[in-house]
Amino acid sequence: MATSKLQAIWNHPAGPKTIHFWAPTFKWGISIANIADFAKPPEKLSYPQQIAVTCTGVIWSRYSMVINPKNWNLFSVNVAMAGTGIYQLARKIKHDYATEAEPAVANE
């Protein structure tokens, strides 16, 4: 039973013998790097970078459901990219626009 399931995965049109498997697998590195940046202070985040990550995730999530064969690895990595990008953008926007300016302390 397990052998037939492994053969089915191996011989799938989006399986490990194709680029349709390996490209999204390596794309997980972008999502992992974005998760690692959760510890980074918001002032060090980049709007263009996070907008690109978010848009890529949203656009390619949709596209991955339209193409044949269905590529769930591509879909999941792009959902992760969109999610991490949205979270990082929210952190950056909150930092830049929602925080009150700290009053300057006079040095005497």
From TrEMBL:
GO cellular component, one term: mitochondrial inner membrane
Single GO biological process annotation from the record: pyruvate import into mitochondria
InterPro entries registered for this protein in UniProt: MPC
Membrane topology per record: Multi-pass membrane protein
Cellular location(s): Mitochondrion inner membrane
Pfam assignment, any one: MPC
Major location category of this protein: mitochondrion
Alphabetical keyword list: Membrane, Mitochondrion, Mitochondrion inner membrane, Transmembrane, Transmembrane helix, Transport
Described purpose of this protein according to its UniProt entry: Mediates the uptake of pyruvate into mitochondria.
Family from the record: Belongs to the mitochondrial pyruvate carrier (MPC) (TC 2.A.105) family.
Protein name: Mitochondrial pyruvate carrier
Species of origin: Arabidopsis arenosa
